[in-house]
Design a protein that fits this description.
The structure holds two protein chains of two kinds.
Chain A lengths: L1 H5 L20 H4 L6 H43 L4 H13 L2 H12 L3 H25 L3 H9 L4 H32 L11 H10 L2 H29 L2 H8 L1
Helix pairs in contact in A: 3-6, 3-8, 3-10, 4-6, 5-6, 6-8, 7-8, 8-10, 9-10
Chain B lengths: L9 E8 L9 E8 L4 E5 L6 H8 L7 E6 L2 E2 L5 H6 L1 E5 L10 H5 L1 H5 L4 H14 L4 H4 L9 H13 L5 E5 L7 H18 L2 E6 L2 H7 L2 E6 L3 E6 L1 H6 L4 H7 L3 H7 L22 E2 L5 H11 L3 E5 L5 E6 H9 L7
Parallel strand pairs in B: 3-8, 3-9, 6-7, 7-8, 11-12
Antiparallel strand pairs in B: 1-2, 1-4, 4-5, 9-10, 12-13
Helix pairs in contact in B: 5-7
The chains are: A mainly alpha, B alpha/beta.
């Protein structure tokens, strides 16, 4: 990081194009090529891997916390219709605040660091998760619920054994969108403090280091795709019946 | 097989259901006794309260006045959840759990009441076989992979899983195509002869009521009892204009449909007519079909064969008409 910070000073003593000092490197990196594979590989462990780790951590914490809050809220709204509108409105409000603004608004309250980032990220997951969980629960066919009640399942048994399993595809669809959105939004967290893949992106915007910019962006995209695939696979494993339906259709 | 269980006698003791904010009761002072092991069909126009009356039994709807007893025990004194686990429940839309395999669907109630795995599994497979689905082929499938008729077979198996003494069936075959419905009705009647449970069967189809019911309970608008009797008695002697209208002007024909040629012991031993066409029929043909056969063939006489294929005797149009006159009036 210190190398980047002093880089703009170095060219004073040099002639030729003003380029950041990346230390040792091949022609590609010295000419600030769009993407220098060798440099990316050489610097992956040191510059990118820790950022990937932070990024995953931010995403997982935010999605898990967001899911818990949205799940409880959806269960309450499932029983008491009056709860739906207030919670959905609040979640919508969060959702409409521009992300950079929200991060900035939070700083005076929760300071610079993880708390601010997590609170902001969680607030963006709430709307989509709440909507999907509630929709999943509500879309359970009424005859299925009637059969459950008529056979002597209690309300709790109906929820746990029938309604929630049937809501799984909708819930997981919500998780997919929430996770991919969070991975994308988490890059903006570096606006507050250099954490996650946003950190190399922000610094590369300032220094003009193309490989760092492109590399970090590609990693964020790869992370989102990977998360998406993992979630889809999980859905297939936990609700095999959805595929049985498709086979017969 | 351990399928035989005691059936329960169900008594509706001056049962009234009044919904809050509604002046007319949905079920009005219903007072009937359903003998153990019989199929009682509840039928009537919409607004007659037939489904309401059925749901009062397992307390999906709570009665306002009177009492319902199952083998002398008041349903109001039982915990509703326990009560329901002891009553088979089949609905028109079937309501199988789409996320569970066929076997798991059938095992729902045994699992709720804590049967062990082996017993549940044996029972589920035995029931699938009983309703005509090969467990090897169907146990591990999901409901979406079955046809409508097959799904309702599973619905039946699921309702009978914990061997309840009473089954409630709410238009169980109403959403199934006519050919499959007919097959399901026949299979259910055969099944019922084997397991002899008490069944309360709701339908709006009078032909189904006549076919399925040991007794038919006809309700009129406002949930009042119009007539409660055997199909034969209702067709022969409708209590009033409403019942006569409800069972239809062809109730004479429907009555003929209740009996087979094989059940007749008053056949003429020699033909009355000579010459002309004389259609032949076996013992399994209903009197209704026999009449149709004679009319189609332009003959006034039918040669009736026995189980062995030999001629048992002869049936004339006149004799059929006389039979309808035995009780009540002749064919209108």
């Amino acid at each position: 990081m210190s190398a980047l910070a002093v880089a703009p000073l170095a060219p004073l003593a040099q002639s030729g194009p003003v380029i950041p000092n990346f230390g040792r490197g091949d022609d590609c990196i010295r000419n600030n090529g769009n993407f220098c594979t060798q440099w990316f590989i050489d610097n992956f462990r040191e510059r990118f891997l820790p950022r990937v780790g932070e990024h995953i951590k931010m995403t997982v914490i935010a999605v898990v916390l967001g899911f818990i809050i949205a799940f409880v809220a959806a269960l309450i709204a499932h029983r008491r219709r009056g709860f739906e509108a207030p919670f959905a409105n609040l979640a919508s409000l969060f959702y409409t605040i521009p992300s950079i603004a929200l991060f900035q608004i939070m700083v005076p309250i929760t300071g610079i660091g993880w708390t601010t980032i997590i609170i902001a990220l969680v607030s963006y997951t709430l709307l989509i998760l709440f909507r999907n969980i509630l929709t999943g629960l509500r879309e359970v066919p009424s005859e299925v619920k009637e059969a459950a009640e008529g056979m002597g399942l209690t309300r709790r048994q109906t929820l746990v054994r029938v309604e929630l399993p049937l809501a799984v595809p909708a819930i997981i669809a919500g998780l997919r969108v929430a996770t991919v959105t969070t991975i994308s939004l988490a890059t903006i967290a570096a606006f507050i403090t250099p954490l996650g893949l946003g950190a190399p992106i922000f610094s590369a915007i300032q220094t003009g280091a193309n490989t760092e910019f492109v590399g970090a962006s590609l990693l964020a995209i790869a992370l989102a795709l990977l998360a998406d695939v993992l979630i889809v696979l999980t859905q297939r494993i936990v609700s095999p019946w959805t595929r049985a339906r498709r086979r017969s259709a | 097989m351990s399928l035989r269980s005691d059936a329960a006698e169900i008594v509706f003791d001056h049962v009234t259901k009044r919904y809050a904010g509604s002046e007319r009761p949905a079920v009005d002072d219903l007072n009937i006794t359903i003998p153990a092991g019989e199929i009682c069909v509840l039928i009537g126009p919409s607004g007659g309260g037939k489904t309401t009356a059925m749901k009062l039994v397992n307390r999906l709807i709570t009665l306002t006045e009177g009492d319902i007893t199952i083998d002398g025990q008041s349903v109001m004194k039982l915990d509703p959840v326990e009560l329901r686990r002891g009553i088979g429940y089949v609905i028109q839309q079937i309501g199988l759990f789409p996320h569970m395999t066929i076997e798991a669907n059938v095992a729902t109630v045994p699992k709720l009441v804590g049967w062990d795995k082996q017993r549940t599994r044996t029972r589920s497979r035995e029931l699938l076989e009983l309703v005509g689905l090969d467990p090897e082929e169907y146990a591990k499938r999901y409901p979406a992979q079955l046809s409508g008729g097959q799904r309702q077979r599973v619905g039946l198996a699921r309702a009978m899983a914990a061997d309840p003494p009473l089954m409630l069936m709410d238009e169980p075959f109403g959403a199934i195509d006519p050919i499959t419905r007919d097959r399901l009705q026949n299979d259910f009647l055969r099944l019922h002869r084997e397991v002899r449970k008490t069944v309360i069967f709701v339908t709006h189809d009078i032909d189904e009521a006549i076919k399925m019911g040991d007794r038919i309970c006809i309700l009129r608008q406002g949930g009042k009892l119009a007539q409660f009797d055997t199909p034969e008695a209702i067709l022969a002697d409708p209590a009033d204009e409403f019942v006569a209208d409800f069972v239809g002007a062809d109730r004479g024909l429907k009555r003929l449909g209740l009996r087979n040629l094989g059940e007749l012991d008053t056949l003429a031993s020699t033909p009355v007519t000579n010459g002309g066409p004389r259609p032949e029929a076996g013992p399994d043909m209903s009197l209704r079909d026999a009449l149709s056969l004679m009319l189609t063939a332009g003959s006034s006489e039918l040669e009736v064969h026995g189980d062995d294929g030999g001629v048992r005797g002869y049936l004339t149009l006149e004799a059929l008409s006389r039979m309808l006159g035995e009780r009540g009036e002749a064919v209108r």
